[in-house]
Automatic annotation (TrEMBL):
TM stretches of this protein: 64-84, 96-117
Its membrane topology: Multi-pass membrane protein
GO CC annotations on file: plasma membrane
Record-given protein name: SNARE associated Golgi protein
Subcellular location: Cell membrane
Family the entry assigns: Belongs to the DedA family.
Presence of the UniProt keyword Transmembrane in the record: yes
Taxonomic superkingdom: Bacteria
Family annotation (PANTHER family): ALKALINE PHOSPHATASE LIKE PROTEIN, UNDECAPRENYL PHOSPHATE TRANSPORTER A
Record keywords, A-Z: Cell membrane, Membrane, Transmembrane, Transmembrane helix
Alphabetized Pfam families for the sequence: VTT_dom
Length: 125
């Protein structure tokens, strides 16, 4: 097998990921893996990346596909319904959502910077 756990053990330090994080995520997925995949498929942004920890934790492919499909269903139904209800008015909504999107992106960048600063401070202590 290429990648996965072995790759993180070897190169994880370069992305501020250590063996303790790997063990924590492994235990988390052993305990809550199915629920984590199901619920995170309904969360914007996070839904994109849940496949990585699930794969690294060794979640069975069939189980992953099942909970991915189940978790994606409410999200997609909601999007289809919203699109149907908005119809041609979607450009109006976009005008109001753009500032919200920028605010969310800005908050995410600030949180990442704060997290990196905290990690750097922890490493120097």
């Amino acid at each position: 097998m290429h990648g996965g756990r072995k790759l993180l053990e070897k190169y994880g330090k370069y992305i501020l990921f250590n063996s303790r994080h790997l063990e924590q995520s492994q235990r988390w997925f052993e305990r809550y893996g199915e629920g984590t995949v199901f619920f995170t498929r309904m969360l914007p942004f996070i839904r994109t990346f849940i496949s990585l920890p699930a794969g690294i934790a060794g979640m069975k492919t069939g189980k992953f596909i099942f909970f991915t499909a189940l978790g994606s269903l409410p999200w997609n139904i909601a999007l289809v319904y919203l699109g149907y209800r908005l119809g041609d008015n979607c450009t109006i909504v976009e005008k109001y959502m753009r500032p919200v999107s920028y605010a969310i992106c800005g908050a995410a960048v600030i949180l990442i910077i704060l997290w990196l600063m905290r990690r750097r401070k922890e490493r120097t202590v």
